[in-house]
Amino acid sequence: MTTLQPVLDGAGTTPPQPPRVTATYTRLAARQAARADALALKALLAPATGRTRIAQLLTLIASAATVVPFIGIVEIGRTLVAGSTADTSRIWTIVAVVIGALLVRTWASGTALTLTHLADGDLQRSLRRRIVDTLGRLPLGWFNGTSSGEVRKAVQQDVAELHFLVAHAAVENTGALATPIFGLAYCFSLDWRLGLLAIGTAPVYLLVYLWLGRDVRVQMERMNAGLARISATIVEFIAGVAVVKTFGETGRAHQRFADAAEEFNDGFAEWMGPMVRVKAASSIFIEAPTVLLVNLAGGYWLVRSGWVAPIDVLGSTLVAMTIPAAVLAVGYSAGIRTQAQAAAGRLVRLLDQPKLKVSTNPKLPQGNSVEFDGVSFSYDGTSTVLHEVDLTLEPATVTALVGASGSGKSTLATLVPRFHDATAGTVRVGGVDVREIDPAVLYRHVGFVLQDVQLLGVSVADNIRLGRPGATSEEVYQAAEAAHVHDRILALPRGYDSVVGEDAHFSGGEAQRVSIARALLADTPVLVLDEATASADPDSEAQIQAALSRLIAGRTVLVIAHRLGSIVGADNIVVLDAGRVVEQGRHDELLARGGRYAAMWHVYTDGNPEPVPSLRSPEQNVEGAR
């Protein structure tokens, strides 16, 4: 244990540990994770606990009623064995009691399952609402680092993982355990030797099952990691299939997949091989034929010894035959519970994500200016990305952010619509700290057009209306015309009613113009623009640039510039380097200084001899023409 302590304490750099120590540490970490997931599951299931307990009580009644027919069979047998002296009225009384017990069991078990299914429906609805509420209050920057697949998995699969546990497991486990217990109580009442005989084979199976499951969490994590590597190689091959085929790397790409699959298969076989053999051998002890053979053979010996009557052996054997199904049901539920705990852990981690703080006394922005006052920012709390940035965007001006990759351009721009909150300093819109503006008000005041366009699987008209759901059709048409995409939409099979992904398929440039139409319709006075023409072809670039010129007119614009030629007409060009503002001014002023921007400009013009349309408002374009 002393060897493990530095690892557990997280103290500095520890020397390489032997495999046995590493395995022990892995088991400890897995147990800690399992405990955390178990607590998460308990917390998530708390709202359903009340109805679940009532359902379990009803199941206990149903289980007790289930044993009554076994007792009835034994008692009828005793009566019939009496021969001519058999009491017919007693037999009919027993039959009536058995029928009553079966009716009670049917009612109790049916009511119990109804309660748990209602509890499950309410729980799933509540969880999905909590998830949607959480997603609605998370910083927009959180979604940049989280795939849509993870969100979909949480909303659909992880919530669904709890269904069996709530709707079935509580009732079925109670029944699976209670029925044999009531039955065994009856067996022991007949003769303690019959009771021991009925459960004689079960301990062997249970001990083996517990031994096999000692490392199941660690092994499942390894298996999931292996599947993730396989998935990654598949995605890599499909995403780059054109490049792979062009450069003759098909065999190598296939080999990476084959290696990942082989590694997974070897690990899986190493884990499952011994387990399957041991479990197959141990399962013999819980199979119905084995249980039947043991009870009949043992019962025969007990009868020959004069300790019990044959009819008692019949009753205990019938009870013993319920044990295999009970053990298998509990084992299945244990596996389901392990999956549910893992899902609960993921759900709780999602629900506990830091939410975007909303002011209890929100303020309204006064004007369209944007200010960065001593703004610093860190994603992880240790590495600072922005350092004390001071910058003012005057109303109705275009400010361009330029700099090398990783200089902090996108990070600075996304602080305006609160994709993240500044670690230090203040970002103001209209003279008000963005943290003191209600998010709904902020997004009506600050719009953004990103380079990575996202169109929803709804009609084209509804995609454009996202910023203003109540906009009329005429307003939608006008926005599309201004964005130079109206004619393309009319050419679709159902025009504006065409659904994206079904009968509306846009190229990158066309999708960008649809997003610009959306921003035009939203009509926000402040706009954050991730230069939309960075990867467009010349024809699309001209149309997008024309649409952008209409979009920025009269607005306060902050544009992330990827190509310097597109922002030479900006009112202010801000040069960032390692998260700091090193230069700012108009294009001509910065060139005259001969500083960082001038060096960037010379590199840019050497690589781009053809002029690039500049991002300018219609008024600037008119002045340029004169």
UniProtKB/TrEMBL annotation:
Q: Where would you say this protein principally sits, based on its record?
A: membrane
Q: Where is this region: Disordered?
A: 1-20
Q: Where in the cell is it found?
A: Cell inner membrane
Q: What are the entry keywords?
A: ATP-binding, Cell inner membrane, Cell membrane, Membrane, Nucleotide-binding, Translocase, Transmembrane, Transmembrane helix, Transport
Question: What SUPFAM superfamilies does the entry give?
Answer: ABC transporter transmembrane region (SSF90123), P-loop containing nucleoside triphosphate hydrolases (SSF52540)
- Return the Pfam families for the record: ABC_membrane (PF00664), ABC_tran (PF00005)
ABC transporter domain span: 370-603
* Molecular function per GO: ABC-type transporter activity; ATP binding; ATP hydrolysis activity
Ranges for domain ABC transmembrane type-1:
57-264
Q: What SMART domains does its record include?
A: AAA
Protein name as it appears in the record: ATP-binding cassette subfamily B protein
Q: Please give the organism.
A: Mycolicibacterium fluoranthenivorans
